[in-house]
From TrEMBL:
This is 4-hydroxythreonine-4-phosphate dehydrogenase. Catalyzes the NAD(P)-dependent oxidation of 4-(phosphooxy)-L-threonine (HTP) into 2-amino-3-oxo-4-(phosphooxy)butyric acid which spontaneously decarboxylates to form 3-amino-2-oxopropyl phosphate (AHAP). It is an enzyme of class 1 (oxidoreductase). GO terms for molecular function: 4-hydroxythreonine-4-phosphate dehydrogenase activity; cobalt ion binding; magnesium ion binding; NAD binding; zinc ion binding. It catalyses: 4-(phosphooxy)-L-threonine + NAD(+) = 3-amino-2-oxopropyl phosphate + CO2 + NADH. Its EC number is 1.1.1.262. InterPro entries: PdxA, PdxA_fam. It comes from Roseicitreum antarcticum. The active site is located at the dimer interface. One of its GO terms (biological process) is pyridoxine biosynthetic process. A divalent metal cation binds at residues 164, 209, 264.
């Protein structure tokens, strides 16, 4: 298969048009052009002035158009967007664009979805958006009960088992079922989306020094280790539970393909330290490929031409690689 003539392009949802999404979309297109075709779904009025845009009728047209212009599937919004100022009247349009991108992925018209950042409060205020974020909404659209958030860069992949909850709630939220399902989804995702035949997983403990034999807590003994033993018995290659402070230097990272962490900062601090600009948010467990840049709407710099497109470019490249891996696996 010639990826430039036969493979469907990716779809990029516009995200919040008052944030940096429109400008990083244009910068990403200008960097990649025909080397990695995608179609941007949104209102052309929200693109930076002077953007060379090709208005297309179907994603398939993006492949030819992308060499000279940003391919745009027009989705009219109710209002113009003011950079840095959330516009509640545009919230319904932001959600509708996500719906449209997912529908295109589910139909096979696009190879995957790359989502530009949304602002959850703006969506809640303007459209009654009841989901904590993109990930949960995409799972809802796909009819999937549980998905996994993975953050990835060239040097590291991390998965937090518990995500956006207060630290004092982590111990209660961490259950054997949640840990086992997170590891299973991660393991399957590394096989299907990253082409790893036998993924190696390293699992962090919850407590300092992984509990130090029970002296600093028993979560590792009573909860984590039994789950890992059961999954190893099924044939998975899993090490741990490890002391988290020994897991992320280069020699340690060379021994695993993904790190399973117990809470948000345990996972995100190392990857953002290693590659702050190039990290990608990946949703594992969906029936379609989804990635996004690992940053928010950045209202404070929106519309000033300052936004760094590195994470979005990395998200596009990763989505293309994941889509190709799925295609090869199904061939």
């Amino acid at each position: 298969m010639d990826p430039l003539t036969d493979a469907p392009p990716l779809a990029m949802s516009c995200g919040d048009p008052s944030g940096v999404g429109p400008e990083i979309a244009v910068k990403a297109w200008d960097t990649l052009r025909a080397a990695l075709p995608f179609c941007w779904i949104g209102d052309p009025r929200h693109l930076p002035a002077g953007t060379p845009a090709a208005l297309i009728d179907s994603p398939a047209q993006a492949v030819a158009a992308s060499a000279d212009a940003l391919p745009v599937l027009t989705h009219a919004f109710a209002h113009l967007a003011a950079p840095g100022q959330p516009t509640p009247g545009n919230a319904a349009g932001v959600v509708a664009v996500i719906d449209r991108a997912v529908a295109l992925a589910q139909s096979g018209a696009v190879a995957g979805v790359v989502t530009c950042p949304i602002h959850k409060k703006a969506l809640h205020d303007g459209a009654g958006f009841a989901f904590p974020g993109h990930t949960e909404y995409l799972a809802h659209l796909a009819g999937v009960e549980r998905v996994v958030m993975m953050l990835a860069c060239d040097a590291l992949r991390v998965v937090p088992v518990t995500i956006h909850i207060a630290l004092d709630r982590v111990a209660d939220a961490l259950t054997p079922d949640l840990l086992a399902q997170t590891i299973r989804i991660t393991h399957a995702g590394l096989i299907r989306d990253f082409g790893l035949a036998a993924p190696r997983l390293a699992v962090a403990g919850l407590n300092p020094h992984a509990g130090e034999g029970g002296a600093m807590g028993r979560a590792e003994i009573d909860l984590i280790s039994p789950v890992l033993d059961a999954l190893r018995a099924e044939g998975m290659t899993i090490s741990g539970p490890h002391s988290a402070d020994t897991m992320f230097h280069a020699p340690a990272r060379a021994r695993y393909d993904a790190a399973i962490c117990m809470y948000h900062d345990q996972a995100l601090i190392p990857i953002k330290t290693i590659d702050f600009a190039g990290g990608v948010n990946v949703t594992l467990g969906l029936p379609f490929v989804r990635t996004s840049p690992d940053h928010g709407t950045a209202y404070d710099i929106a519309g000033q031409g300052m936004a760094d497109p590195s994470s979005l470019i990395a998200a596009l490249r990763m989505a293309r690689g994941m889509a190709d891996a799925r295609q090869e696996a199904s061939a």
